[in-house]
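Table 4 source record.
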Amino acid sequence: MPTVKSLNSMVQIYGGTFTIGCTDFYPEEAPVQQARVKPFLLDITPVTNAQFAAFVEETGYVTLAETVPDPADYPGILPEMIVAGSIVFAAPPKGMPVGPESWWTYVPGANWRLPYGPELGAIAPSDHPVVHIAYEDALAYATWAGKRLPTELEAEFAARSGLDAATYAWGDELSPNGKKMANIWYAGFPFHHPERTGPPYTVPVTQYPANVYGLYDMIGNVWEWTSSDANGPVGNNGCCQTATIDHTPAAEIQKVLKGGSHLCAPNYCQRYRPAAKWFQPVDTSTSHVGFRCARSVNHG
């Protein structure tokens, strides 16, 4: 049985050696190999709208999605795109082709306060995970909280919670005995959701069962930023926890996301597994990406 210790809103995970990766689904998940994780602390849930609001109230922080893009950073940007906003999912009309261009739209005015844009209003319940978070936004919150972002290895180790060889975070069945274990899109993606007629597609961060470590939403609800570089060795710590590296444009830097989201579905994106990952540009925010924080354990 994995060993953990609960510390208020964080859980101490004592680390160890485990199997990372998978060869049965997507090529970026390979190879399968052994990895070791040192002890660390991890937030019990993704950061919620209420938690992020407290950070903004205290610091006056403005997220990337609330900032008008600088045309100098995006050569060739269309004039209509030079407006603060973010990328939003909307279920397409029945009959549309199944592909990202059918359901993703850059929506002016969309941000963590207005996750589906100004027309739909502030559909951001306090206990739902905060979304439309770019990498620099996650870093800013983590720094304020005296924490950091987890690495890819830490995120996968925590999601597996001792079930090293299992396909899913809870075992080898997606819905054991018919029980839904995470907020994913179980059927009908992208046209019809079996439980919701429209946004919000996120749910309260403790709605689904916690894993053995007492962690919620390690799979589903929202993708979560890690500090690991997409172009580095598997499980790397990230060359630095900043949004720009050696003057490289932010749009060209990608980090590893872990955990899948509410948009993962058996018929399209089977990334609701601990081994799954996605590579996200650090300057890109969407309605299905959030984060949680980690903290190193000081043995000194």
